[in-house]
Design a protein that fits this description.
Elements (H helix, E strand, L loop, with lengths): L1 E4 L2 H14 L5 E5 L6 H11 L14 E6 L2 E7 L6 H7 L9 E6 L13 E8 L2 E8 L2 H12 L2
Parallel strand pairs: 2-5, 2-6, 4-5
Antiparallel strand pairs: 1-7, 3-4, 6-7
The protein binds adenosine-5'-diphosphate and magnesium ion.
The site of magnesium ion (MG) has 5 residues, from helix 2.
């Protein structure tokens, strides 16, 4: 599924729609060049899910956790992830649970360690705007994107 996002408010609206359809247990990767809008979109998802206060980019920490009543949200940014051995030591594996949603920027840097995603999202530059591509990689992901498509 592909969609044109002409400006930042359009990216935020897409994030609000995704927040309505992502389910506990899901993993979504966000790919695209620096400045494509991965963090902007992730922040919009987290805000719409009820995260208050500052939403830091996990550039150095690699992950920022949030909890909304009994739902855990983990925002990963693997841009600076280099050593696959770090995966075991970090406890990142414990973030992937039935009661959590994992949103992952720069998944390609942790390829080989990451659990299989349900949805692969890609943002790319198109003129002044962005193109959003959504691919379902599991049955749950497919159901989720069908719901997303109906929320226009
Ligand atoms: N649909 C859009 N059209 C144009 N600019 C956008 C759009 N979505 C986001 N932006 C802008 O692009 C930049 C994206 O930055 P950021 O979200 O940090 O990217 P990334 O995390 O992919 O490196 C921000 O300055 C944001 O205002
Ligand atoms: Mg980013």
């Amino acid at each position: 599924m592909q969609e044109f996002l002409p400006d930042e408010p359009a990216t935020q609206a897409a994030g609000a729609r995704l927040a309505q359809v992502l389910k506990p247990g899901m993993v979504m990767t966000l790919s695209g060049d620096l400045g494509a809008g991965k963090t902007t979109l992730t922040r919009a998802i987290l805000r719409s899910m009820g995260v208050n206060g500052r939403i830091k980019s996990p550039t150095y920490s690699l992950v920022e956790p949030y909890v909304i009543s009994n739902l855990y949200l983990y925002h990963f940014d693997f841009y600076r992830f280099e050593d696959p051995d770090e995966w075991e030591a970090s406890g990142f594996r414990d973030c992937f649970r039935e009661d959590s949603i994992c949103l992952i920027e720069w998944p390609e840097k942790a390829a080989g360690s990451l659990p299989a995603p349900d949805i692969a999202l890609t943002l790319s530059w198109v003129g002044e705007g962005r193109s959003l591509q959504l691919n379902a990689l599991s049955k749950a992901g497919k159901l989720c994107l069908n719901q997303y498509a109906q929320l226009t």
